[in-house]
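Quick one:
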Amino acid sequence: MPPLAAVPDLDAELDELYGLPLEDWTKARNDLAARLKKAHQGEQAEEVRTLRKPSLVAWTINQLARREERALAELLAAGDRLRSAQADALRGRGGAAEVSRASAAEREAVRRLVTAARELLGDRASAATLDRVSQTLRAAAIDEAARPALERGRQQEEVSGVGFGPLVAVRPQARPRIDELREARERIKELRAEARRLAREAREAEENAERAGREAERLREEAEGKRAAADEAATALAQAEETIGRRR
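Output:
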């Protein structure tokens, strides 16, 4: 019996797999692995079979990559600018202003994606989950190893940044003197402290915004309830006046 036809486009199959609802993921992965095995593509079947089901955070980011392509592209561009600004600052070619502007652009891109994630997750959009979505977006956007999965929407797990990650990749052109090394280390220390402060402030701002959104929703519902009660009272008043008018 001749072998079955190969899966036409495994890359497309994987794109479809990572775009599925989370509850359908495992079965679809196993089905794909089985089809590959029947098509005598044992090596690919084993690779697919060992793929891990994405966490809720990773799944959310994969959906954002498909639904919010423009916002994701803006985040990746902002990540590139941030890496460049950090590298220039470490080499003494730029200052805090450039890093601050690049960081602001990156935060704004992340904010838009987290807002979309909140709408996507609905009841599952806890503050902790959204914070992990935010941290993974930031880290993956500047991590060369994690970035491809973010771009393709094939994230399997969360990614966490360590300090000012991109700075460790900067390589000096010439052997620096001891005083230059000391200055560079101090600069890295300052930048890491600034990064931690900004990340903390961003998380606090996002939590405040989430609380404000919940309070606004509560007030809106309360106003709607009072409006409905006022309408009922007005209707009852009109009916009472009409009854009195008839009795006269």
